[in-house]
Amino acid sequence: MRAIGMILAGGNSRRIKELTKNRAVAALPIAGNFRSIDFALSSMTNSHIQKVAVFTQYNARSLTEHMSSSKWWNFGRKQGGLTIFTPSVTDDNNLWFRGTADAMYQNLSFLKNSHEPYVIIASGDGIYKIDYAQVLEYHIAKKADITVVVKELPEGFRAERYGCVKMDDHNRIVDFEEKPIIANTHTVSCGIYVLRRRQLIEFIEKCAEEDRHDFVSDILVRYRDVKTVYGYPLESYWSNIASLEDYYRTNMDFLKSEVGNFFMKEYPIVYTKADDLPPAKYNRGSNIKNSLVASGSIVNGTVEDSILFKKVFIGNNCYIRNSIILNDVYIADDSHIENCIVESHSTLKAGYYHKSESGVDVVSEKADRYII
Amino acid sequence: MITEFQEKPDEPHSNLASMGIYIFSWKILREALMANADQPNLDFGMHVIPYCHGKGERISAYEFNSYWKDVGTLHSYWEANMELVDIIPEFNLYEEYWKIYTKSQAVPPTYIGRDAYIERTITGEMTEISGKVYGSVIGCNVIIGEGSEVHDSIIMNGSRIGAGCYLNKAIVAEDVIIGDNVRLGGGEDRPNDTRPDIYNNGLVTVGERSEIPDGISVGMNSVVAGVLKKADFPDGGLPSGSTLIRGGDRK
Predict the structure, then answer these.
(1) Could you tell me which residues come within 8 angstroms of residue B36 by beta carbon, excluding any fewer than 6 positions away?
(2) Mean pLDDT score, B210-224
(3) B119 touching A (Cβ < 8 Å)
(4) Which class in CATH covers the domain with range A3-264?
């Protein structure tokens, strides 16, 4: 593969509220066993990209822990592999990454020391499968300076939260607005870009000179008229975790067989760090309908239209509906949870009741556990 | 100190059994292996240990008092699996301080369908349950179709059970394809016609990578294996105690 990969996973979305209090958006758990960054990492490895850098910043701990071994995505190799860049204080720099372009600038040697002619930039919070090799082929065929992967949003989805794109009949991008007040298009940027490595170095050095720091607003938007920027329309599933509602909806999408099968059964598969967990267990009295249950979980009660992540315990006579129960949650007997996301490691005492009447609530309860 | 050692005797002189775990001084082992090098099917329990015992080597026993189960017969294998679905099994896989490691086959969670029902069961990753499952051990990447019922069975990795099937005390090996409306197990209690010593206790066994066509029924104490066609079952099925093994794996 003639490209290196860069994954921008530094973001901290305030619209996800409690769930990103202690973890990066890219480390958000998805569909029982995955974390959101797995989708970008898996697409990279499945496209035979051999050298990938992940830029991380806010709440990097859970993310670096997840990527503590690169073997899960087949990046454990002598040449290239997976590199993680977190901001670090050096002799001539004591700043955080002030933006995505600044993050690349502070680690410019990674780009300069590579020999691959192209760079694929992706965000760490997109849920999709894509063959970057095809995007690169398209980029070369179109003789583009930058190619942006774009998605036509289905009816009912608001485009204002994304980079909004207008293309001509040949898919050349004629307008690009980042999170406009009112969007007059339904085509949005997926946050995946392809460009020549030397071109990117040039952009980033120019940015740094001008004290600009953001890849999208300071490079993509500013240069959209002087450079040839093309859109590559993505036909398959794409979702971006930009808000709590997005997070909830994206997880629930995995209950639909077309989405579940696309990610979990159809080739190429999505990789993640695997734990050696025992099988999921359903005791007498359990009653589960239309739900995903990850390994290590034990269910004694009723679970409907929900996702149970790893090592979840559901007590006797519980009723769980339309909810996402994150890793290692203990829900004691006679509890009722409806329209909620229960934060990892929570312990809900017997008889706990929480039903959200509108939208989805995040439940986080810490209590001592006594387990035989 | 061990004073007597019998390998699989008809009448055991003791209820202390060897678990097949040995620690040797290298010199003793080396000597025993060299001395018995010409013995066909050289076996630790059958030859090496009795040889050392006969030579008067000091052989001591370590008495292990925790869970141990040998799964050397079909029935003990089935039993060991069934014990795992007990509410708190004697051998608890969910123990934090003694994890059991394995090659993780697949990672995605199990999907339990809208009309499914599942209890007293454990399931592996990537499995999809649309039918009803009671008291069973289901592996990874298994599919159990709509309207099927599975009781007290073991379904191994990668097997697919069609719609409207009924399985009772079945052991279905890996990558088996079972059509729709297939019935496995139950029926009259008759011993197996070829190997009653293996296929017994009401179990019905399906060999790996087998295929069973739609609408077939096979009774208990039976074994079927191979890619089977409707023509293999002139009577639409097999009575209890049957053996039907066809060569030729499915690719």
Answers:
(1) B42, B47, B48, B51
(2) 96
(3) yes
(4) alpha beta
For residue A29, give the H/E element and its range: strand A29-30
What's the complex ipTM?
Answer: 0.88
Picking from A152, A123, A119, A122, the residue whose alpha carbon sits closest to that of residue A136 is A119
List chain B residues with CB under 8 Å of A66. Answer: none
Size of interface A-B (CB pairs under 8 A): 96
Contacts of A264 in chain B (CB under 8 A): 108, 126
| B99 lies in some domain | no
Q: Would you state the torsion angle of the CA atoms of residues A25, A70, A258, A26, taken in this order, to the nearest 10 degrees?
A: 0
A150-195, pLDDT tens digit by residue?
999 988 888 888 899 999 999 999 999 888 888 888 999 999 999 9
B91 has a chain A CB within 8 A of its CB = no
What are the sequence ranges of the domains in chain A?
3-264, 281-363
Say whether residue A292 is in contact with chain B using an 8 A CB cutoff.
Answer: yes
How confident is the model over A201-218, as pLDDT tens digits?
A: 999 999 999 999 999 989
Return d(Cα A96, Cα A102) in angstroms, integer: 9
Residues B161 and B48 in one domain: no
Range of the domain at B180: 111-245
Structural domain includes residue B88: no
Look at residues B65, B81, B102 and tell me which one is the last residue of a structural domain: B65
Q: How many angstroms separate the CA of residue A293 from the nearest CA in chain B?
A: 5
Nearest to B121 among A34, A274, A282 (CB): A282
> Tokens 């499915």 map to which residue?
B250
User: pLDDT tens across A298-323, in order?
Assistant: 999 999 999 999 999 999 999 999 99
Q: Quick one: B135 and B43 in the same domain?
A: no
B127 lies in some domain: yes
Q: Answer whether A317 touches B (CB < 8 Å).
A: no
| Fold annotation for A281-363 | UDP N-Acetylglucosamine Acyltransferase; domain 1 (2.160.10)
Residue B137 is part of a domain; what is its CATH number?
2.160.10.10
Alpha helices in chain A (DSSP H): 37-46, 60-66, 100-106, 108-112, 132-141, 197-209, 215, 221-223, 244-253, 257-264
Please count the structural domains in chain B. 2
B29 contacts chain A (CB < 8 A): no
pLDDT digits (tens, 9 = 90+) for A40-95: 999 999 999 999 999 998 888 889 999 988 999 999 888 889 999 988 877 777 78
**Do B60 and B121 fall into the same domain?**
no
